[in-house]
What does this fold into?
Amino acid sequence: MDLELTEPLLPSEVNGMDELGPIKIGAVNYLNTKPLVYGLKELAPTATLIYDLPSRLADALADATLDVALIPSIELLGDSRYRVVSDACIGCQGPVLSVKLFSRTPIDQIHTLALDEGSRTSIALIQILLDQQFNVRPELTPLPIGAALDDVACDAVLLIGDRAIHSPAGSFQAVWDLGDQWRRWTGLPFVFALWCARQETILNGIEQALATARDNGVAHLAEIAEAEASTLGLTQPQCRDYLSNNLSFHLGPKEQQGLDLFYSLSQKLGLITPGQNLSTSAGKAN
It folds into this structure.
């Protein structure tokens, strides 16, 4: 499934960013998104930036509440309503640190699995990894937003975002970093989220603003770490190391290969069928 990017503006056109019309942009309020929105308000001063969970952003993009949003990559599978509008993304080339499985039993003995409702991509990914590597297909149950591991009695729990960075209290037989597991198994990077818009949406140059914000953010990771570390209970070196070494922010050929394999396996396991969008389905991955 090749992702065709909207034709970007030329560098000489970046100065026109202040002429962008009103547009609603949805982003994730996690640490891993900070480099993607660095200075975006200045680059697109007339745009409104709205923060929410990845799954909720996907719903808002689907119902046209948002014009462009950073949505879970699985939302694109077989859905012709969307187009990718930037090569800025949230991905990893190994351990991602902020997407983890905490299992109270050995992996091959997981019968029940609680799923963090924040990201549908991670929900699909953990099912693929369990099925393909251990032939495990656990009973799934939601982990409500804000709920802790102790609130559920499942064999294993999937956590995403900032709270997954900190190991929760408890005794676990196994802890999986999903980015690391995917890389070890496939040898490919993984892409968790992409900037997308509906096909009919006129963006008036926001594509270049998103790419420029990403480039500026990557160039200022130390400043981002300094601003965000204390609120997350991390040291500045820990925060900078996470942003620098656990994440990647460019959608390139290898990332495309990883997405192609992810989409193929998602279809194979029936996690989503072509033409079906997770934001309008309460199926297995929600």
Notes: The chain has two domains: 11-91+190-280, 99-186.
